Amino acid sequence: MISIIIPCYDSFHLKKITRHFEDENEIEVIIVNDNPTRSISGINASNFRIINNQENYGPSKSRNIGLQSANGSIYIFLDSDVYLSLNQVQYIKEYFEKRNEISFLTSYLDQNIGENIYSHFKNIYICYQFSKHLGQVDFLYGSMTATNSKIYWPENKRIVEDNYFGLQLSRANIPIFLSPELQMKHLKEYTLKSIFLYDLKISFHMAELILLKTKEKIGDLNKVTHSNRAHLLALIFLLITISAWTISYKISLISFLCWLTSNISFFEFIKKNKKFSMLKYIPVMTITQLAQMFGAGLGLIYYSTYKKTSLEEII
User: Which of 29, 75, 185, 301 is 20 to 30 A distant from 179 in Cα terms?
Assistant: First the structure.
C-alpha cells in the first residue's frame, strides 16, 4: 500500500488534488488538518482519513503525525496545493520496488503550470535550478517527497524545513534522488508582492543552511535548492549595479551587462517554452533576484553574528 500524507492549512485546492485518489484500493490518503480554526468537509472516500491537529504545528510535525498512523510501505508527502497524477504515483511505486536500500525521491515540476507570469516564472525558474542538479542530491523539495522508510522530519523548523531534512539525510548517508520523470503540478498562484516576499523569506533562512553546510562540510554548496554558481554571480552583479549607480553609471552599466550574461543559461532554458515572451521575464527575474539578494544578505549577517547555530540544534 502507498500512503499519501498531506499536511493542510489552506484547503482551497484540496479536492482538486485528491479527487483522483478516491476509492483506490492500493492508496490511503491521510490529510492532517493543521488549522484548528476550521474543519475540512466534503472528503468522504473510504480510503481517506482526516486527522485534526489541536493547534497549528507546522508542516514537519503534521507530516510526522500522518506518518505515525500510515499503514503503507511507501510514503508520499504532498503539499495541499500540489497535484500528483496516478501515473506519477505508479512511477514512485515502481521506483521503490526496484530499490532495496532506504532512499528518498523528490520531484521535478511541470513548468507549464501558472496562470500569470509570476506563477509561471516561479515554476520555470525552479525547474531551471533543478535541471542543474538531476540525480543524487542533498536536498528535498518538500512539496512532493517520497520514501520507503518511516523516517521522521525535524520538527523545530517551519521554513525551508525540507532542505534541513535533506541535510540530515545526507549526514546519515541516506540517498536522495531528483527525478526529471517525476513531475508534479504546483497550483499555487503568485502575485508581484507574494513572489517578492516569498523569495525574501526563503533566501533569509537559506543563508543559515549555507553557513551550516560550510561549517559542517556536508553536501555540495552548488546543490542548494534555489542556487548555483551562475545564480550567485547574478546576485553579486545585481548588487554592484545598484550600489554603483550613484558613483558611476558606466560601472553600473557594465555590471548590468554582466548580470544579463550570468543569466544567459536561464534565458536559454526558457527559450524552449513559448507560453510567455522571454523579455517579460526580465522584470520579474530582477524583482525576485533583488528579494533573494537582500534576503540572503540579511540572513548571512543575522546567522553569522546574532544567531549562530549548530546542526545538532536544528535536527
Answer: 29
| pLDDT score of 218 | 58
What mean pLDDT is reported for the chain?
A: 81
Average pLDDT, integer, range 56-68: 93
Domain assignments of the chain as residue spans, ordered by start: 2-116+133-189, 215-314
Q: Average the pLDDT over 70-97 and give the result.
A: 93
Domain range 2-116+133-189, its CATH number among 3.90.550.10, 3.60.10.10, 3.40.640.10, 3.30.450.40: 3.90.550.10
pTM for the model:
0.86
| Integer Rg of the chain from CA | 20
Contact between 278 and 270 (Cβ < 8 Å): yes
The residue type found at 219 is G
Question: Sorting pLDDT into bands at 50, 70 and 90, what band is 312?
Answer: low
What pLDDT digit, counting tens, does each position of 153-196 carry? Answer: 988 878 888 888 888 888 888 999 988 888 888 888 888 899 88
Q: What is the 3-state secondary structure (H, E, C) of the chain?
A: CEEEEEEECCCCCHHHHHHHHCCCCCEEEEEEECCCCCCCCCCCCCCEEEEECCCCCCHHHHHHHHHHCCCCCEEEEECCCEECCHHHHHHHHHHHHCCCCCCEEEEEECCCCCCCHHHHHHHHHHHHHHHCCCEEECCCCCCEEEECCCCCCCCCCCCCHHHHHHHHHHHCCCCEEEEEEEEEEECCCCCHHHHHHHHHHHHHHHHHHHHHHHHHCCCCHHHCCCCCHHHHHHHHHHHHHHHHCCCCHHHHHHHHHHHHHHCHHHHHHHHCCCCCCHHHHHHHHHHHHHHHHHHHHHHHHHHHHHCCCCHHHHC
Grid cell at residue 232: 550567485
